[in-house]
Amino acid sequence: MKIPSPPVNPENKPFFDAAREGKLLLGKCSACQELHYYPRAVCPFCSGKTELVAAKGTGKIYSYSVMRRVAEPYAIAYVTLDEGVTMLTNMVDCDLERLRIGDPVRLVFKAAEGGEMIPMFTQ
Amino acid sequence: MTIKGKACIAGAFEHPTRKAPDKSTAQLHAEVANGALANAGLDRKDVDGYFCAGDAPGLGALSMLDYLGLKVRHMDTTETGGSSYLVHVAHAAEAIATGRCNVALITLAGRPRSEGSSGTQPRNYGAAAPDAAFEVPYGAATVNMYAMVAMRHMHEFGTTGEQLAWIKVAASHHAQHNPNAMLREVVTVKDVLDSPMIADPLHRLDCCVVSDGGGALVVTRPEIARDLKRPVVRVIGAGEAMKGQAGGRIDLTWSASRWSGAVAFEEAGIKPADIQYVSIYDSFTITALMQLEDLGFCAKGAGGRFVADGGLISGSGRLPFNTDGGGLSNNHPGNRGGMTKVIEAVRQLRGEAHPAVQVKNCRLALANGTGGQLGSRHGSATLILERA
Hints:
The complex is a heterodimer of chains A (about 120) and B (about 400).
Chain A: H1 13-20, E1 25-29, E2 35-36, E3 50-54, E4 58-67, E5 74-81, E6 86-91, E7 104-111, E8 117-122
Antiparallel strand pairs in A: 1-2, 1-3, 4-5, 4-7, 5-6, 7-8
Chain B: E1 8-14, H1 25-40, E2 49-51, H2 60-68, E3 74-76, H3 84-97, E4 103-110, H4 142-157, H5 161-175, H6 189-194, E5 197-199, E6 202-203, E7 213-220, H7 222-226, E8 233-243, H8 257-268, E9 277-280, H9 285-294, H10 303-307, H11 326-330, H12 338-350, E10 364-372, E11 378-387
Helix pairs in contact in B: 5-9, 8-9
């Protein structure tokens, strides 16, 4: 399945650079210490400066939906990482008929059309 | 300062078309503008405020005012997706209350049906959207972003597909009386569940129609509205809010309507139980369910039981909703359902709904809209309207 490339910009480039090395980065505020996703330069909780920290790459399905009326069905999902933040993603390389909320999942990367590596999850 | 009683909806017009391959979007805006002014009994020269949202082609109010040939002293292009037009009514009331204008015209039009739009297409709000890089690769479309809300609601509260289907069943019962409705056939719960699965757990009949068309409203001050020889519909409460992904603290079990509704009820000084008719944005069945809960018509998680067994059918149900057939069966012009929600609420308060679905002596109505994506970031706007 073709994965559309993300629009990479100076702010999110470090995230996609790290993804090429197999790392999923979260935003962490240097002031309030809170984690956030998707990462951004200014903390959404306190407007402080942020840094990027690597996630372990494990979590649980918060919600999901299998898109049926397309050429190739695919599963969009929200996964709550063990670090506590929830991210939009796809479930891949697993039986889409057996997905359940609460299922444990682990990180994989898939290449987008432009070569960027995209964090996704499998079971 | 409050807008309570400071402004009235004097004109409301829904374009009768549902497919307009031979018209331009700007042309549809002009046609609904004329329709709403005629409905109000006002002239284009009376208009001194103009409101439009992201569906307006070109440079918003600048392009549209130039095209329409209108001269105004107040304009507002607030864009909150499908909820924009409810926000516009509230902002028009504020502008009227502060003397910025006397007669505000609000227009919406779009041709998604002619342009081949579908809710299964990935949504893209532009490469510069801060969230784009984290959503575009995943095939975030309209329907699957709402489907995840439904999936979570079912998980948390035991809501069933049958219960969601009742929302469509009620809409179809109402649409059979609307000659302009895109889908006039009465459907059953089984019909909904037997329709093709689009994105789990939403079936085709859980989804609204894709239609061309539009609508317009005229908002004016009470002194002017009283002279127009039409039933006077007063704006007595309004609220607007947005809810998003909150930096990854995502909770899909409730919507921004919890906030917009609370503000509107507080301003109006009434409670949900006082409302006799509701227009609730129904882009999908789950959208309506969430709003009914978040506005306080039932407890959180109890929406499935609230809508089941015909709970929303006018004449027999506990809370008549979307008596025009709503987005699910009637019309969803420009993929933006907020405008038609206000229009049907005005019809009900005027006593101009179809006799088969007219709420007897309807004095208090609520219109609610959401915009954007319930599963990621969305706006909500609530209007409480009263027949004077």
